[in-house]
Amino acid sequence: MSRWRDRNQLIAVAVIGLVVMFGAPQVLQLFTIINLTTAIALAVLALSLGLIWGFGGILCFGQTTFFGLGAYAYAVAAQNWGDTTSAVIVAVLVAAAVAAILGYFMFWGRISDVYLGVITLTVTLILFNLMRRTSGPEYKIGTALLGGFNGTSAPPLTVPWSGAMLFPTQLFYVAMGALILAYFGCIWLTRTHFGRVCVSIRENETRAELLGYDTRVYKLGLFAIGGGIAGLAGVLIANGIGRVTPDLFNLSYAAQVIIWVIVGGRGTLIGPILGAFGIFWLTSYLGTQQVVNANMILGLVLIGFVLLLPKGVVPTVVDLVGRRRTRRAGRSARRRARSGSRRSVQPAE
User: Fold this and answer.
1) Does residue 216 surpass a pLDDT of 80?
2) Is 278 exposed, middle or buried (0-12, 13-18, 19+ CB in 10 A)?
């Protein structure tokens, strides 16, 4: 019954995703579609942290490291080669490789969770300051100038083997398709043997080691996959805004991605995606007024969720639905028991 219900939920998510993918461009204005493309990129970033934090227990404060590196790698490769398809592959591989190298030193060094968060946050802030100091003409990779705090341009995605540039609406289709594929790829990963071992490490790393698993290998693999997904998000954001700047590494993005996961719900994959969309909408709305500071509202949202809904929206809703279903099943069982007892005491004619 549970597997049947789970399968139906996944089918519902796929249908909703496809409806949004093909329906939104038909009813929304172009400006909204462009904004939605940016939100989708941030949702993919939230998904990457939701995977490694929610299923591997790896709290990475600097997930924007791989996000920004993916964006820069895409922009530099596309400018040098003129081919965006290979640039996308390079961007994902660069982000995953950097995550693997960083993860190797952290996991084999037995760094605790708190210090892991500090190290990753430090790395992203170092990259933020480093890229801001690359404004001179000598700072270039191939023919691509890094541009300092102004950043560098990101050539738009093109159709593979034809070179035709994608327009904003077509880019929205690509971004939405990437989000759906990344989501179901993560779902598949968490249900493999590898994913189940990662969950067991999250629950009790010592017990997993005693069962014979090298937890460092599994954590490193999950961390690298999460880095690759964050690199894909960097490609999408580079195409969404048309430029790559050091701001992708800044503290604001690094903090927001954690808020998205907390609000949506850790331990789920759909939760961080919904959290990213919700907070993006809230931030955009707050940006249209001058009465209250948007960052103060975000801080209050974070405090409110930590105190009132520590599990996040999606796990809380799932718990409520589960409790209601259990109560309903209990009432049905009691009703059947009462009707059975009445039949048993009814005198025979």
Assistant:
1) yes
2) middle
